[in-house]
Specification:
There is one protein chain. This protein is α/β, with parallel strands linked by helices. The protein has one domain: TIM Barrel (Alpha-Beta Barrel). It contains 18 helices and 10 strands. A 5-stranded parallel beta sheet has the order 1-2-5-6-7, sandwiched between helices.
């Protein structure tokens, strides 16, 4: 997720942060809305035959998305368990909801249980994680004909056959484990199936790609124990957000394949270390793991990322003249006017395919998947890939580039299921 980096200027466009409230209004309570499927490119309409083939592939096969930020978006809107299902609107403009997912064929979006880095200082990380897990469980319980929890590949496949959308869960930021190794097992028992070891700041587990402090020069001693325990209980180790040193130390230590739940390729964004280097992609392939490509423009194109950051700086500088912060309510009219006059650039859907191509070239076709970061990256999604209903658009582009049906199935879910099964098979019961 990118939207949450309000305090890291070099990472997060400030306008995106400023739009947090308006974005939250748009995407809160987004589970049952109706949406139109985006089926044509604004620039080059897809071949109708390829699009029809892509739609068949999307609906006849599982699609696993490694990272969807619905839970925290709902929390931002003060979604409370005691009233969360009362008067739920049937329409919103979020990236993920039930109807969009059904139209686009997305059958297994990993719900991100996100822990902001500030909770590492203030405390309450585990409590927040528990509340978001409760939220996801409650959604499934309230809509048994639409959603179901999923704790294994078998669950995903069973739910798919029933026409249900699975809601597996991953924890974004290992801060939720706090300083108690027993919490690894605790969260596994609560349904968490991967943990992103770090996020925007170094934590007790290891160093973050965003943090230049390099507290541990990789994994901490506690972090090494966490990785070993995750292997033991059968939990996927997620290396998105970690520093390069942390990444390579994890690969030396782990006994199972790892995942990058929502990362892209650094070769296209040389100044953005959050993405994976070529050496990392090769190493991930040798490890047997999987990189799940992030769809945000800021992850996809260096030129567009820098242009966006320039816009954000200009906006922030202007707001300073009025003694306003981007997150202030009083700043919103200025933010909206600036956005109209200086729209941020958007990558094309072809650029997403470029990252997939590159990852396939270096890691191998068996080691790539999708990790959109939907509902987590604000208004930075590519043209014709604005929400989960548009997954067939991406598959059509890949088909046009020569990917076979069998290869598409691997990218959609086959590769991830293989990794997940290997991790479960290696667990100590």
């Amino acid at each position: 997720m990118l939207l949450r980096f309000r305090n890291i200027e070099s990472v997060l466009p400030r306008r995106i942060a400023a739009g947090l409230r308006s974005q939250a209004r748009l995407i809160a309570h987004v589970l049952l809305t109706t949406s139109a499927l985006g089926t044509a490119s604004a620039q080059t309409p897809p071949d109708p035959a390829l699009l029809a083939r892509a739609e068949r592939l999307a609906h006849q096969n599982l699609i696993v998305d490694g990272h969807v930020d619905l839970p925290y978006r709902l929390r931002v809107k003060h979604f409370r368990l005691e009233r969360q299902y009362l008067g739920m609107p049937l329409k919103s403009d979020g990236n993920f909801d039930y109807e969009k997912a059904k139209r686009g064929g997305l059958s297994a979006p990993f719900m991100s249980v996100y822990i902001p880095a500030e909770f590492q200082v203030t405390g309450g990380a585990k409590l927040l994680a528990d509340s978001l897990i409760d939220m996801v469980r409650g959604i499934a319980a309230a809509h048994p004909g639409k959603f179901a929890l999923a704790n294994s590949p078998t669950d995903l496949q069973r739910n798919f056959k029933k026409g249900l959308i699975s809601l597996p869960m991953g924890m974004e930021n290992g801060a939720g484990i706090e300083d108690n190794l027993n919490n690894v097992r605790y969260f596994f028992d609560r349904g968490i199936r991967y943990v992103t070891l770090t996020h925007g700041k170094d934590n007790r587990i290891g160093d973050s790609s965003y943090d230049t402090t390099r507290t541990w020069k990789g994994l901490s001693p506690f972090g090494r124990r966490v990785v070993t325990e995750m292997n033991r209980v059968g939990m996927l180790v997620d290396i998105s957000h970690v520093s390069d040193d942390t990444f390579f130390q994890v690969l030396e230590l782990t006994k199972t394949p790892v995942i990058a739940s929502h990362s892209s390729c650094r070769t296209f964004t040389p100044g953005f270390r959050r993405n994976m280097s070529d050496d990392q992609l090769r190493a991930l392939g040798k490890n047997g793991g999987i990189v799940m490509i992030n769809f945000s423009t800021l992850f996809l194109d260096e030129k567009l990322r820098l242009e966006t950051e320039k816009n954000e700086k200009a906006l922030a500088d202007f707001l300073k003249t009025k003694n306003l912060k981007p997150s202030d309510d009083a700043a919103q009219p200025y933010v909206e006017q600036f956005e109209r006059e200086h729209p941020n650039p958007k990558a094309s859907i072809e650029r997403v395919a470029d990252h997939i191509d590159h990852a396939v070239k270096l890691a191998g076709i068996d080691h790539v998947g999708f990790g959109s970061d939907f509902d987590g990256v604000g208004d930075t999604l590519p043209v014709d890939l604005k929400d989960v209903s548009q997954y067939p658009n991406l598959l059509a582009v890949l088909l046009k580039r020569g990917y076979t049906d069998a290869q598409i199935v691997k990218l959609c879910s086959g590769n991830f299921l293989r990794v997940w099964n290997r991790v479960l098979a290696a667990a100590e019961r």
